[in-house]
Amino acid sequence: MNKLYTAKDLETMLQEGKCLGELPADARFTPMALDVLRKENVSPTGVPSRSSAVSATNQPVSIHNPVLPNAEYSWVPGGDPKNSRELEKFFYSPAIQQLKERVVAIGQRIYGRGYVDGNGGNITLRVGDNLVLCTPTLISKGFMTVDDICMVDMEGKQVAGTRPSTSEVKSHLGIMKRVPRAKSCVHAHPIFATAFAVANVVPPSCLIPESEVFLGEIGLAPYETPGTPEVAESIAKLATKHQSILMANHGLITWSKDVEDAFWKMENTDALCQTFVIAQQLGDGAKQYGPDKLKDLIKIRKSLGMPDHRMDEYKECELCDTAEMALPPQPLPKACLCEVPESNSSSVSDDATEALVKQITDMVMEKLS
After folding, report:
1. 118 burial type by CB count under 10 A (0-12 exposed, 13-18 middle, 19+ buried)
2. Which pLDDT does position 321 carry in this prediction?
3. Euclidean distance between CA atoms 118 and 138, whole angstroms
4. Does the structure show a pLDDT above 70 at 332?
5. Full-prediction pTM beyond 0.70?
6. Tens digits of per-residue pLDDT, 91-119?
C-alpha cells in the first residue's frame, strides 16, 4: 500500500536534511502535508514544481498555451444518417444537442438586443452534407427551448423536430449552397440596419476599422417576397462577396462559419449603421479615412481567413466610394442666437421702414381731419 505522508513526516525529513524531491512517485499526502510541499515548491509526485524550475533559470513563468476557441462544427463528408433510426439518434445526440443550445442562446441574445419583435428572425446551423438545424416558424426567438429546434435538408424539407420550420429558411440554404464556408446564417430586423434596408442605402466604407475587418463590404439585395425562391436567389448571389447583406424593405442577414460569429456580424452591422446616422448629424457629418488605410484593413481581414473581393475588383480610388452616402449632414445650431450685424444695412433698412410708416400715418391723419 502507498505510504501516506503527514505534515509532521515531511517536517522531520527537512530537519534531517533530506530532500523532499526524492519522495516516491506513488506517495500519498494529507492536506497539511500538501501545504508543506507547496511551501517548498515541490509537486505532490516528488518532482520539483515547474514554477520552481523556471524561476531557477530566470525564464518567464507560463502555465497555459493560449489558443483561439473554434466553434465551427465539422462533419465527416458522406456520413449523414441513412435511415430514420440513424437520423433520430443523430438529432438527439449530445453533439447536436449542444449545437441546439447555442442556437437557443443566440435567439435570446437577438431578442435581448431588440433585433426582433414578435416571431421575427430565424437562425440556421449546418450539421451535415444535407442537414441543417433551424429555428421554427411562429415562435419568439427570446423564448425558444432546445426541444423547439428542428432540422431540414438542403432543399428545405423538414426531416426532424416537433415544430414546423420557417419558410424563410430557403434564403439561408441559398447562401449555404452557393458558399460552402457559410455554415450558419442569422436573419433579424435590427432597427438601424433595417432602416438602411428600407431606405435602400448601404452604409459607406472607410468609417470604422473594426467594421472593415470583421464585416467587409455590406451588400444590398433587391426586395422580393419573403420565403420565395426569388429572395433566396438574390441573396445567394450577393453572399459570394458579402457576409452581411441588407434585404431591401425587410431586414438583415449575415453568415459565417459558426452561429456565434454570424451573430457578431449582425451586431457589427447595426452598430455601424447607428454610428453613421449619429455622425451625420454632428459638425459637417461623417468623415472617411483614405483608401490606402482601407487596403491595410483588407489585408488584416484576409489574414483572418475572411473573404474580401474589393482589392481584386476595385480601383484604389473606388475603395472609399461615397456614392451611397445619401444622408445629408445636419449642422448643429449655433451656441448663441445673438449675432453681431455684419454691416449697417440693417440700420438703413430700419430708417426706411420708419419713414414709410410716418408717411402712411400722416396720410391717414390728413384723411381723418
Report:
1. exposed
2. 67
3. 8
4. no
5. yes
6. 999 999 999 999 999 999 999 999 999 99
Element (H, E) at 102: helix 94-112
Provide the pairing of β-strand 184-188 with 158-160. unpaired
**Cβ–Cβ under 8 Å, residues 248 and 223:** yes
Catalytic residue among 11, 168, 217, 316: 168
Q: What is the pLDDT, as a whole number, of residue 44?
A: 67
The grid coordinates listed for 328 are: 445629408
Residue 221 bridge partners (DSSP): 247
Pairwise CA distance, residues 67 & 69, whole Å: 6
- What is the architecture of the domain spanning 84-318? 3-Layer(aba) Sandwich (3.40)
CB-facing half-sphere around the CA of 60: CA atoms within 13 A: 4
**Which residue, chain included where needed, has cell 425558444?**
144
Q: What is the residue type of 202?
A: V
Long-range contacts of 133-137 (CB under 8 A, 24+ apart): 133/96, 133/99, 133/100, 133/103, 134/165, 134/166, 134/169, 134/172, 135/103, 135/107, 135/165, 135/166, 136/161, 136/163, 136/164, 136/165, 136/166, 137/163, 137/164, 137/165, 137/166, 137/167
Cα separation values, 312 from 215, 289, 305, 309, 315, Å: 17, 20, 16, 5, 8
Residue 322 has pLDDT above 70, yes or no: no
Q: Write the CB contacts of 43 (distance below 8 Å, at least 6 apart in sequence).
A: 37, 49, 50
Domain limits, CATH 3.40.225.10, in the chain:
84-318
Is 72 tagged catalytic?
Answer: no
